[in-house]
Amino acid sequence: MEKKVYSIDGKELRTITLDDNVFGLPVNEDVIYYAINNELANKRVGTACTKGRAEVHGSNAKPYKQKGTGNARRGDKKSPITVGGGTIFGPKPRDFGFELPKKVKRLAMKSILSEKAQNDTLTIVEDFTVESGKTKDLVAILNRFAKDERTVVILKDDDAMIRRAGKNIPNLSFLSYNRLRAHDLFYGRKVIVLETAAKNLSDFYCEDKEAK
Q1: Do residues 183 and 105 lie in contact, with contact meaning Cβ atoms separated by under 8 Å?
Q2: pTM, whole model, 2 decimals?
């Protein structure tokens, strides 16, 4: 697959050949779902907690005699059917996370990249940085490719200055080529990939490397 490379001014510079094993695959919606679900599940805190009848504070004494009062039979005040009693089948702290096979994760990322490339929502831009670290300088570049859209920028490395410049920009995410997140990547309306990062993605997700 060939894609055009643009300058930060929005002008066409050249074309680049992308690996079809990464950017030209059929979109597998199932593995994308599993990858996104896995990420969201791993982020859940799982600290919700309620008290059962054995944990609430109260007397264990029978509130009134068994017969003759006209009331329903009652064991103690901590019963779940009384005000202030325990909770029936309430949540307890738990870990919602689960592991996903490595091959499934890689296939999900390649499926998302292929879907973005085939729908022309993926744009390759020459390598750039924001040396000043100012938001306005980064906004001036991004506005040439995406305006008021949920945007993802895939970096060739962990560029601290460009991340600093984009800290206050809403709906903007930065991902390193070797640490992609399926949720951010899938829901990004525009995906901007630096030229070196595009080459690194082809090397990182290529079939030969997976086989080793």
Answers
A1: no
A2: 0.82
pLDDT of residue 212: 44
Mean pLDDT value across the chain = 90
CA distance 185 to 43: 16
Class at the top of the CATH hierarchy for domain 2-28+102-211: alpha beta
Q: Which residues pair with 15 in a beta bridge?
A: 4
**In this structure, are strands 2-6 and 12-17 parallel, antiparallel, or unpaired?**
antiparallel
